[in-house]
Design a protein that fits this description.
Strands 1-2-4-3-5-6-7-8 form an eight-stranded mixed sheet, sandwiched between helices. It has twelve helices and eight strands. About 40% of the residues lie in helices and about 15% in strands.
Length: about 280
C-alpha cells in the first residue's frame, strides 16, 4: 500500500514490506519503485523490512521540486529512514541513486550502515571516444540516452531501454515498459529526466574517499552505459577507503541486473547484507 512522506514542500511515495532491519530501495532515473519487484521478495524472505520509494518527480511522488540532484535524493532517502524509525539502514541505489546512496552514507553515517550500488553513476564521467567507436552497445546506448535527455523524448528513452535490457528480459517486461511510458508522458515527467540527466555525479565522486560504511557495487557485464563496465565498478571501489568496497559482476546483464537476473543479484546482495546489518535470527 502506498504511503506518503511530506518533505521539503513535496511528497515522496513509498511502500514498506516485511519485518527486520531496514533496507531502502532507490530506483534509477526514469523508473519507479516497482523496479525492484523481483528483489523485494528475496529480501523479505531473508528477514528484512524493505522500503521502496518513488524518487522525487517519479511515479506517485510529486513534481515541482526546485532541483533534482543526487544531493537532493540523498536528503530524501535520509528523511525516509528517519521517518521509519532511524537507522542504521542499508540503502540500495540503482544508477542515479547509486551516487545518492554514497552521499547519504557520508552525510549521516549514523543512519546508513551499508550501501549497495547497482549500475551506479557515482563518479564524474568523461566521454570515452575510443569506447564509443569500439563497443556498439555503448555507442547505441549513449546516443539514445543523450537524445532522450536533450529532446525530452519518451520514445528515445524507450529505445535506450531496448539496449539497456540485452538478452534476458522479465516475463512482464512489455507491460512494465508500457506503464513506464504512460507515467513519463504525464505533464512535467520528462523535464525531471532532463534535469536529472544534466546533474553530473561529481558530487558523489568527491566523497567516495570518505564513505564510512561497507559498500557493494553490482554491475552488469553488458551495461551499455560504459564501454568497460567492470573497469567503472573497479574505479568506484578504488576511490573508496581501502577494504571498504567490493564488486560483483552479473554476467550477461545490462543496466538493470536486478530486473534481468534478480536471483543472481540476490545471491550477491544477501550475504553482504548479513555481514553489514544482520537479519533476524532464523531467517534466510
Amino acid at each position: 500500500m502506498t504511503e506518503f512522506l511530506e518533505h521539503e514542500g513535496g511528497r515522496i511515495a513509498y511502500d514498506v514490506t516485511g519485518e527486520g532491519p531496514l533496507v531502502v530501495l532507490a530506483h534509477g532515473m526514469g523508473d519507479g519503485r516497482r523496479a525492484y519487484r523481483f528483489l523485494v521478495p528475496h529480501l523479505v524472505a531473508a528477514g528484512y523490512r524493505v522500503a521502496s520509494l518513488d524518487l522525487r518527480g517519479h511515479g506517485e511522488s510529486s513534481t515541482g521540486w526546485p532541483s533534482y540532484t543526487r544531493v537532493d535524493v540523498a536528503g530524501d532517502l535520509l528523511a525516509l529512514i528517519r521517518h521509519l524509525g532511524g537507522g542504521p539502514a542499508v540503502i540500495v541505489g540503482h544508477s542515479f541513486s547509486g551516487g545518492a546512496a554514497t552521499l547519504a552514507a557520508v552525510r549521516a553515517p549514523e543512519l546508513v550502515g551499508a550501501v549497495v550500488e547497482i549500475g551506479p553513476f557515482t563518479r564524474a564521467q568523461k566521454i570515452d571516444l575510443p569506447g564509443l567507436l569500439r563497443v556498439a552497445r555503448h555507442r547505441k546506448g549513449m546516443l539514445r540516452l543523450l537524445a532522450a535527455g536533450a529532446l525530452g523524448s519518451v520514445g528515445m528513452w524507450k529505445r535506450y531501454l531496448d539496449v539497456a535490457y540485452p538478452g534476458v528480459r522479465p516475463a512482464d517486461h512489455a507491460g512494465y515498459i508500457a506503464a513506464l511510458e504512460a507515467d513519463l508522458r504525464r505533464p512535467g515527467r520528462m523535464k525531471v529526466i532532463t534535469k536529472m540527466g544534466g546533474s553530473p555525479p561529481a558530487d558523489a565522486g568527491a566523497v567516495l574517499g570518505r564513505i564510512p560504511c561497507p559498500a557493494l557495487v553490482v554491475m552488469g557485464t553488458l551495461d551499455p552505459d560504459w564501454a568497460a563496465p567492470e573497469a567503472e565498478a573497479d574505479g568506484i571501489v578504488a576511490a573508496m577507503p581501502e577494504g571498504r568496497g567490493r564488486v560483483v559482476m552479473i554476467d550477461g546483464a545490462g543496466h538493470y541486473p536486478h530486473a534481468q537476473y534478480p536471483d543472481e543479484v540476490a545471491a550477491a546482495v544477501l550475504p553482504f547484507l548479513k555481514e553489514s546489518s544482520g537479519p533476524k535470527e532464523g531467517n534466510g
